[in-house]
Amino acid sequence: MLRFLSRKRGRNGQKTSTQIKSGSQRFTSNKHLVQCKVILLDGTDLSVDLSKKAIGSDLYEQVFYSLDLIEKDYFGLQYTDANNVQHWLDPTKAIKKQVKIGPPYTLRLKVKFYSSEPNSLREELTRYQFFLQLKLDILEGRLECPENTAVELAALALQSELGDYEEGYHTPAVISEFRFVPNQTEDMEILILDEFKKCRGLT
């Protein structure tokens, strides 16, 4: 399932963009609308057109509906202010009163709370979003990870992205196209490739 979900990003890992419109937009002129750009955890963009009077919950509803996210409480939308300080979007307040840069207003979907019991998560899609958040946190250095653990996680990430290892196709050059840690070396990529070979058959 993770492999299927990861392929929703597009062929060759290319970033894609999706635009959705609020249900009331057909009755509203463009001058009464604002555009919100939401950067998802897989790197793709979601553009949402909302009323200028929209509150945070309106945007949350559109994003969660678009992604088919059911376990919503784990996630939040984060924006950056003019002082480069990050804030969570308050669902009860007007968007334009909170996000001062824009329009378009740019926000990022992020995991806001982690479950203390990951096995209790009901939805595969929720687990996949957690996986994407952890992968991003390791890559950007927000989450420290021992090298042996990073190698194992990188191999599992490759398994979800590429499927089973194929000799002659999945070469070190292919592995080097993926970034897993801030200071990734060729030696580490060889270790990742060796570990990736052991993941055959995992889904």
Describe this structure in words.
Helices cover 34% and strands 17% of the residues. With 203 residues, it is of the alpha/beta class. It folds into 2 domains: 13-111, Phosphatidylinositol 3-kinase Catalytic Subunit, Chain A, domain 1 (Ubiquitin-like (UB roll)); 118-197, Acyl-CoA Binding Protein (Up-down Bundle), CATH 1.20.80. A hairpin with a 5-residue loop joins β4 (75-80) and β5 (86-88). The chain starts with a helix and ends in a 6-residue tail after the last helix. It is found in: Cell junction, Adherens junction; Cell projection, Rhabdomere. Residues 13-24 have a biased composition (Polar residues). Pfam families: FERM_M (PF00373), FERM_N (PF09379). Residues 1-24 are annotated as: Disordered.
Name a few traits of the molecule.
Acyl-CoA Binding Protein; 203 residues; six-stranded mixed β-sheet; Ubiquitin-like (UB roll); alpha/beta; cytoskeletal protein binding
Topology at a glance:
Layout: H1 2-6, E1 17-21, E2 33-39, E3 45-51, H2 56-67, E4 75-80, E5 86-88, H3 95-98, E6 105-111, H4 124-139, H5 147-162, H6 172-175, H7 186-197
Parallel strand pairs: 1-3, 2-6
Antiparallel strand pairs: 2-3, 4-5, 4-6
Helix pairs in contact: 5-7
